[in-house]
Amino acid sequence: MKQLTHFLEGFGSAVQLLFQSARFAGTLPRQRARFIDQCYLIGYTTLPIVAILCFFMGSVLALQSGYSMENFGAKQFIGSLVGLSFARELGPVIVAILVAGRVGSAITAELASMKVYQEIDALVTMNIPPARILVLPRLAAVLVMMPVLAIIGNLIGWFGGAVVCKYVESIAIEPEAYFSALRRYMKFKDVGIGLMKAEIFGFVVVLICCSIGLNTRGGPREIGASVTKAVVVSLISILVLDYFVTKVLM
Amino acid sequence: MNTAQQTARVGLFFLLGLALTWVTWETLSDGKLFKQTGYSLVAGFDNLKELKQGDEVRMAGVKIGSVERTRLAGRRAEAVLRIEPGIKIASDATATIVMAGLIGTNYIGLDLGSPGAPVLLDGAELRTKITPDINAIMTELGNLGQKLEGALGSLTTTVSGDGKNPGLFQKLDRLVTDNSTKIDTTMTNLASATDKINKGEGTLGKLLNDSKLHDELVATVSEIKAAASDAKFFVADAQILVNQVKSGKGTLGALIFDETAGNDLKIVTRNLRDISEKIAKGEGTLGKLLTDDSLYLSAQSTLKKADRAIDSLGDSGPITAVGAAANVLF
Hints:
The structure holds 2 protein chains of 2 kinds.
Chain A: H1 2-23, H2 32-42, H3 47-69, H4 78-116, H5 119-125, H6 130-167, H7 175-184, H8 188-214, H9 220-249
Helix pairs in contact in A: 1-6, 1-8, 2-6, 3-4, 3-6, 4-6, 4-7, 4-8, 4-9, 6-8, 8-9
Chain B: H1 3-28, E1 39-45, E2 56-59, E3 62-73, E4 76-83, E5 94-99, E6 106-110, E7 125-128, H2 134-160, H3 168-178, H4 180-199, H5 202-209, H6 211-246, H7 250-257, H8 259-281, H9 284-291, H10 294-316, H11 318-329
Parallel strand pairs in B: 1-7, 2-6, 5-7
Antiparallel strand pairs in B: 1-4, 2-3, 3-4, 5-6
Helix pairs in contact in B: 4-5, 7-8, 8-9, 10-11
C-alpha cells in the first residue's frame, strides 16, 4: 500500500510538473541559452555512445537473424528484419535507455543537489518557479533532440547490419541486396512510428528525472538514491510505455 | 567552449537530424529522392495476389524495373510498373505474377515477346496471363485428396464389404473354409510332387536334377541354333535369288518381269495352239501323217517293195542295186 502511495505520489508530482512547465511554455524564447545548453547536453554529447551502441546492436541483430534464417533459406530478408526491428523498436528503445542512463541521471543528480543544498528553495523564495528555468528547457530540448538521435541511431544500426551481412562469411549478402530488402518491406511510416516513440520515451524520461530530482529530500546520500530511483523508474517506464505505444500505433 | 560554438554545434546537429530524416523519407518512398527515370507500363490482373509496391519486374529473370503502385481499376486490379530506361518491351510480351518463395514474395515476370513486334511506349498496357498461385494449387490438392478418399472408401467397401454384401476377404474366407478339404488334398499332392521333383523322380525331376538331360538339352539347342543359322543363309540366298528375279536377271526373271519375253511366249503359245489345231484337223503334212493312214499304207507298200528289191540285189550284185532301187522308187 505504501509503495502504491509512493507510486501515485511520484506520478502525480510528475503530471503536476508537466502542467507547471507547460504553463511557462511562452517563456521559452527568452530562455534560448538554457535551451541550447540542454540541447547540447541531451543531443550532441549523447551522439557518440548512441552511435556505438546502435552500430553493434544492428550488427548483432543481423548476425543472429542470419544464423537463424539460414536454416530455412530466408537470408535475403535480413535487411527487412533488421530495418523494421531497428526503426520500429530497437532504435527508439536503445536511444531512450541511453538518454535515461546518461542524461536522465545527470538531470536528477543536478536537480537533487540543488534541492538538497536549498538552491531550489532560494529560487522559489525569489519567485522563480523551478519548472520554468530548470524543467521547461530540458523538456523542450529533449523533444527536439530525441528524433535526431533516433534517426541517426536507426541509420547507424542499419549500416551495422549491412557491414555484418557483407563481411560475415556464413551470411554473405551484398549491401545492395540488404538495402533492397530493407526498402522493399519498409515504409517511412515505420520510421515515423519509431521517431514518435523515441519522442515519447525521451519526454517521459526527462520528466521523471526532473520530478524525482526536485522531490529529493534529505542530505547528500539521498542524491544518489534519487539518481538510482530515477534511472530505474525511467527504464521501467520506457518498457511499459513501449508496449502501450506500440499497441496504439500498430 | 563559448555559447556561440555550442549553439552552432546544436544547430548543426539538429540540421543533420532533419537531413537524415528527409533522406530516409525519400528513400523509403521508393526512390523519389531523385527524379524518376524510365517509363511506366500498366499490367491488369483479376487478382494481384501478394504483389505489392516495390516488388521487382523481371524480364527473362533479369530485373528491369519495379512495381510503382497497385490500384483497383473497375473490376480488376492494376499494377503500374516503372521500367528502367533503355529497356524495350515487345507489345506481345506477356506479364505474369510469379511466386519467388513460399513466404509471399512475388514479382512480375515478363517474357521476351517476338523479335519483330513493336515496342511498348510509356503508359501502354501489357498483356497478362493468370498463373495458379499456391492457394489454387492447395485447393486442387484438397479436391484430389477428396477423390482419393472416395476411391479408398470404395476399395475398402469392396475388400471388407458394406454390411449387406460380403467383401472380397469374406468371400475368400468362405471359399477357403468351404474347400478346406480339397485345398488340403491339393497341398498334399503338391508337396508330394515337389518332393518327387526334389528327389529327381519323374520327367520334371530328372529335368531339374539330372545334368545329362541338361547337357542334351543344351546340345539340342545348339543344333537348333546351327540349323537356324543355316536357314538364315538359305533365306539370304533365296533373298538374293528373289532380288535377281525381281531385277529381271536370268531366265526366270526375264520370264516374269520382261514384258517382251512374255509377249513372245504368248505368241509361241498361240502358234503352238494353231499348229495343234491344224494337226488335229489333219491339215498339213504332220496332220495328215497323224490322221490319214493312206500315207502309212503307201509307206508300208514302199517298204515291201524296197525289201523285195534288196532281195533281188543280193542276186544281181551291187551295181544293179542302185538301178533296181531307182526303178522301184521312181
